[in-house]
Write a structure and sequence with these properties.
heterodimer, A: mainly beta, four-stranded antiparallel β-sheet, B: alpha/beta, Rossmann fold, four-stranded parallel β-sheet, 10 helices, 18% strand
Amino acid sequence: MQAQVMDPVRKCRHPLSAWALALSAGVGSWLALDGEASAYLAYVSNEKGNTISVIDTAKLELVNTIKVGQRPRGITLTKDGKYILVCVGDDDTIQMIDTQTGEIVGTLPSGPDPEQFTQDADGKLLYVANEDNNMVTVIDIARRVPVGEVQVGVEPEGMGLSPDGKLLVNTSETTNMAHFIDTGTRQIVANVLVDARPRFAQFKRDGSEVWVSSEIGGTVSVIDGATFKVKHKIGFEIPGLRKEAIQPVGIGFTGDGKTAFVALGPANRVVAIDAASYEVKKYLLVGQRVWQMAFTPDEKLLFVTNGVSNDVSVIDVAGLKVIKSIQVGELPWGVAISRE
Amino acid sequence: MELPTLIRCILFAALLLAGAPARAADPMEIKIGYLRLAEPKPALSLLEVPAANDGVAGAEVAIDDDNTTGKFLNQHFSLDEVRVTAKDDPKAAANALADRGAVLIVADLPADMLIAAADAAKARGAVLFNAGAIDDRLREEDCRGNVIHTAPTRTMLADGLAQYLVWKQWRRWLLVVGSHPPDQLYADALRRAARRFGAKIVQEKTYEDTGGARRSDSGVVQVQRQMPVFTQNAPAYDVLVAADESAVFADYLPYHTWDPRPVAGSAGLVPTSWDPSHEQWGATQMQNRFVARFARRMTALDMQAWTAVRMIGEAASRTQSANAQQMFGYLKGPDFALAAFKGQRLTLRDWNLQLRQPILLADGRMVVSVSPQEAFLHQVSELDTLGVDRPESKCRLK
């Protein structure tokens, strides 16, 4: 099947239609707080479906489905917004998809089994975790060539870049470490032990801390961005839920740095945390096995992927409320949202 | 040069010299023993004939993993493998390992040999990791304070299977038991599981081992006549459950039963700690690196040995120590948790040092399900719905 031509809604702002649809869907409450809802596109990688589901963030509707390679997981948009980059692990490559046409227009030489990646601020370099060979690969996006490699621990997974682009953090799942890599020299400058099976690393936007989620350990380690010491560990308790089911994965910070959201996997909840005091603000019930997340650029909404229930939950960031779930493809894994 | 400046320079140089050897220090060495009984194990299916390095291959992959981690912490791990026969003295072998500095010993030994080795090497501070023996008595009346068990028990395996069969509403079982002692022990575990989870054994049959070869060119002709007749005239049942650890008959049962019924237990749907087809929860990476290293698939015994060596690696990195007692203390303490591709943390039962773990149910091609099943609840850990639980345990650790 040919991929459909992308919906022209992408560049439009159309408050009236968004109003009408949103109200009819019974989600007027959050919109009523603001004058208009901006239309962005959320791209959701479906690990089992081998597709990307495209959601209009104003209509909160699925508008397109793009067929991609095998086992799409890590997903992002190039900084110029022209391409979707998606790790297709079982094809050992990263596919580039034209955001205008939905066509796969090229690949990046990721090395074997790419799962997650992160881009530098200029959108020139892509840092990729290769799960099968204990390696981080550095790719020049424009030239589509690998330009470097860094040996890390067993099963590298999470990738986070400091706001100034000088430090890369990679987590290795079986080694149970966060590796801090100097992006200038591509040498490891610190290895920090965290709890079992670290999955994701995210810097605060001021670079003061990096948070690392440990899926099996059930905690989030807060690592000081300057001293590389674990300064705090955040644990979770949800009444009626067994400890083993609380498995933190994706992490997101609001732009003001005040609130962090962490996806808790098979606990079927996203937790909102006060990013300064590390206190839990609220547990939000979402779909089954919640995995990764992305904010809309205006930060009004947070989209989280629910792998087992094949849907995406939409969270009202200010109100700390789940306002909708949207059916996507099979086993949604990652999500990226367009900037304009 | 002024004197104070000179002194400062000398002090600075001294600091540099003091710092330099510390950075270049030899890695902390952690020697791990691997003690195994090297006797052929019978199998009906050629696919089940164990490789010569069954088990120890898993330990070697874990050594690689530990060393990848160790290079960031200046720790180095090595494996010292010792094979014994049934006639050898396991006590001498364990003591020899301990004398060579390998006091953390992964063991793949039958129950009596394991106890002998553990008791003998106790004086040398040895800690054994039982990766091979599934006997409940090693965690019950014969438990030892210096033996950690990464192999599941028969009751854990039987309970994992029973939960699924009950969930599936296959509550009426035809139990067929082999005539060797291990088959009887497995049957005991299955009867116990049936009682616990509400299944009914409608009939029990014994399959006598009358001797004879497991390989023969025309055996299939006889099997096709024997098995239907053997299972004829059974009361109405939902599933045939076979207890045949000795590999005498169970693999002949699927598709040969008189009534068209599924088979489980020692053939058909088999409860196990690991299966070559297991791919969930990141297991694909584990399978890939095992196959890349050994050009064969990873067995349950490989996984149980991998788990033991990874536990040691985890203890070494958390304690930053090569001291066996310190590492043992960490593993027994509340902070220990291991990620082992089972979808949840694995921890130790502190009353008998058994590793809690989900049980996979595999049919030889796919993992059909993973127990504990949904809605089998427990006040401490749902993994404790599998096997003998604390209140019923006879273990008093010494």
